[in-house]
Fold this protein.
Amino acid sequence: MKNPYEILGVAKNASDAEIKKAYHRMVLKHHPDKNAGDKAAEEKFKEVNNAFDVLKDPQKRAAYDRFGDAAFGAGNGASAGAGGMGGNPFGAGFNFGGGGFDGFDMSEMMEEMLRGAGFGGMGGGRGGASRRGPTEIRGRDLLHQVVITLREAFTGKTETIKFSTNVVCEKCGGHGTDDGRSAPACDNCGGTGYIRTRGGIFAMESPCPECRGAGRKIKKQCAACDMGVINKQREIQVKIPAGTSDGARLRLAGQGEAAPLGGTPGDFYIDVRIRPDKTFERDGANLYMRANVPFTTLALGGEIEINGIDDKTLSVKIPGGTQIGEQLRMRGQGMPARTGRGDLYLEIATEIPKKLSEKQKKALEEFSGTEPKKKKGLF
């Protein structure tokens, strides 16, 4: 995989906040909605998501800093996807934005690295394999980005997402066998999917040649699929809760890519982005807006009407003597929060008329003449 720091344009010692800020900037720049038909932008968008997935997770980031590409099985790229036999034969791991990388979960990956270096207990078995039973295979996680308006974030929204992914073969039930039954563990590797060989004090591991790293030996394969999965168009309904913040990530457990050989499916993640609103600015659960108030109302006091985020008409009392730039607080008129709603803050502004009638000019001149004059100092 490419260097995630270079992709996001951050230093290796960048803070989490700096990484997140760089990610948001790059996503907005290369998002497909803004670059329709631009394949280069689409690929860059995938790279950005993959890079952020590594750097936002402390374990993955630490693994990359220490092991580099080897931490994520460099060379087993997306072309070795679930069901394919190039690189990683069962596609376990992650596939964010289609680019993806192959490998085990971080805890499993570190365990495998230590085991490969000759640490940890390894049971006997033909070829030096561990007799732990068939390896649990996990499908890829998937990521999709949804862009909504601020008002949709206020009310919540149900989004229909269509995508192509590997699903369980109906004919064999995901087992990849002609009879639809689970294949037995491979005798050559004991179901682990790898063979260990010793060289002095070190031990090396490589994919089992008998089962091609799958951990199960299929004597007669299902004619309708490849190792229990087929690529198919899917459609799911995602409910975005009211009050969702920009950059929030939602998780649908088990809705990701199906795993070969009846393994555990991955998860489906939704990144929510919120378009800037012309009227309101958001800060957490609070909203801010600019309210133009007539000069006479500022001076004498009165009421104005505004439309809230929920499109309801709100009456606002303006105290006499209110100054331009002051903020008036309207409790409970902000975004949904865990306990009720946030507040709405009105920044007071006024519009100076460009043309005045003679009567208006005279009134202002009379008002100006009644203002107390400032006393002149000695100097």
In short: Residues 306 and 313 are 6 Å apart (CA to CA). The helical segments are 4-8, 16-30, 39-55, 58-67, 106-116, 150-155, 295-300, 358-370. Residues 74-132 have pLDDT under 50 and may be disordered.
